[in-house]
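User: I'll paste a sequence; please echo it back and then give the predicted structure.

Assistant: Echoing your sequence first, then the prediction.
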Amino acid sequence: MFESRQYQEAIAVFQRLIGANDRHPLADNAQYWIGESNYALGNFQKAILDFEKVFTYANANKSDHAQFKLGKCYKRLGDKQRAREEYQRFLNNYPKSDLRSKAEADIAGL
């Protein structure tokens, strides 16, 4: 559904997965994709909350992507200072992430 740009429907499916079992091995991924769906809908404030929830899952494999997207959300909201802070937190916490060059480019563009 996400790939078909049916974001509201995707959010509902991801929320059902988490609601059925918040310890499911894919719960952290579902939470991340809820954030991506809200980001795609332009709901940046909601997306921020969704991406922050990713960090509540132990051993979440999307933590670096969630941190990166926090910077993107604040950038889209026009909060350059907070965007810089979130990107810097990303660079500090995930130095080997495949998103590093994108974060550095976004910081340079602020």
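The chain has a mean pLDDT of 97. Residues 4 and 38 are 14 Å apart (CA to CA).
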